[in-house]
Amino acid sequence: MPTLIAFDADDTLWENEIYFEAAKDRFKNMLAPACDPEWTERELYETEMCNLAHFGYGIKGFTLSMIETALDLTKGAVTGQQIRQILDYGKELLQMPIEPLPHVEEVLAHLSRTCPLMLLTKGDLFDQEAKIARSGLADHFTYIEIVSDKNEATYAALLQHHRIRPADFCMVGNSLKSDVLPVVALGGCAVHVPYHTTWTHERVEPSEAERRQYDQIANLGELPDLLAERFASTSQN
User: Fold this and answer.
1) Would the N or C end of the chain have less CB density within 10 A of its end CB?
2) Cβ partners under 8 Å of residue 126, min gap 6
3) Distance between CA atoms of residues 110 and 126, nearest Å
4) What is the maximum span of the chain, computed from C-alpha positions, in angstroms?
């Protein structure tokens, strides 16, 4: 088995994006009398991208981006009541249900008996800590890391900190951009577990060479057998 197996959180261990999509739909409907919903969605996304450098990932940045988008699209005519409504959308997201996806609990329990596990997620510290606590999964993990972004530099620093070679590390997650390709680039093992919806910012099209360097499974229930097969093959080589 790897020296360390790390798991993404949102949309890998529990659902997340569907709640953001629902809040976004409510936001577009609120502005629909003044703005075309498709235009509102494009403007909101562009605002989010501009604000990443200021607010980072997470619900607070998303909420502030909705307020800024509403101000821009209505040329400042958005009402205090509408801003209050947007704030309520954000507060409701902070209370979203955190229920493990199928197979998560049994797979974590199984793997944690033979290998240290890490929960590796990005976003707002307060928000992510609260979701982890509500999930009831924290006890399965030897390490919990909440980072501002997940890229090659982030992974390299974490591996150096934990004194683990990339070849002995495995990352499991739903995002090719954040969970898979940076780890592959460092020479680590990555397992892609697609989720049925993905935030536009996380969508990438890997090259054929990149596709050959990671595994993909339909759900986490397939992970133990995949790891046993992959690392048995590696040890034989």
Assistant:
1) C
2) none
3) 29
4) 67
- Summarised one tens digit per residue, pLDDT across range 3-42 is 999 999 999 999 999 999 999 999 999 999 989 999 999 9
Residues 85 and 154 in one domain: no
Q: Do 135 and 113 have their domain in common?
A: yes
The token pair that represents 50 in the structure block: 């501009």
Q: How far apart are CA 58 and CA 41, in angstroms?
A: 17
Is the Cβ–Cβ distance between 63 and 41 less than 8 Å?
no
With a CB cutoff of 8 Å and minimum separation 6, the contacts of 91 are none
0.70 cut: is pTM over it?
A: yes
CA distance 40 to 32: 8
Last residue of a domain, one of 94, 128, 163: 94
pLDDT digits (tens, 9 = 90+) for 134-157: 999 999 999 999 999 999 999 999
What range does the domain containing 80 cover?
Answer: 17-94
> Using CA of residue 148, residue 150, residue 154, residue 155, what is the dihedral sign?
positive
Residue where a domain terminates, one of 48, 75, 94: 94
Spatial CA neighbour of 37 closest among 48, 26, 47: 26
Residues 193 and 151 in one domain: yes
Same domain, 138 and 157: yes
